[in-house]
Amino acid sequence: MDMNKPWTKLNPTPPFVLESDRQIIDGYNSNPRTCKNHKIQTELYPEPFLGKPNVNVILLNLNPGFSDDDAEFHQRNDYFIEQARKNLTHQSDYGFYLLDPRINKSPGYNWWSKRLRTLIEACGQKNVAQNIFCIEFFPYHSTNFKKIETLESQKYSFQLINKAIKRNAIVILMRGRRPWIKSVPHLETYSRCFLLKNPRCAYI
Questions:
Q1: Predicted pLDDT at 201
Q2: What is this structure's pTM?
């Protein structure tokens, strides 16, 4: 896999799964022991990250969630689809595209605008969208997170974090402390890595 731009290889039509990830994803979803809430929703665009990667505030989250309303935007909202695909190559027009007011009815906008509300009130929404970058530990949508075998595509995200550490960026661990530190060991001793008081709420 090209570690510079792995997500350029994503199919233009569903299922939205990188070929390098397909065997693990298909095997997991077809396993009769995989419950509905843990099933990976391959009809939605993956969100391995949000925003532009070279900023100095990095948020580490666990996985993109899923609700029934997501399909309306991922499958039928042309502007959302355009920005979701641009996001995969760090080219979204608004930066952190789930803060874009043009998609303010989407579940993703609702979730992130609440979690970042204090920061938005202090700095302005566009300013926040241009100056924070979020990396999801697992790039595909599901109602609830369950750790499975590491995907090839995750290596690119881990690479982005190591680059952020090298440039001395602030890293905020929102959710998933254990899997993040296991995958990126430098986080455990990195002096500019901070934990939220309550990861269950994950408010910044």
A1: 78
A2: 0.95
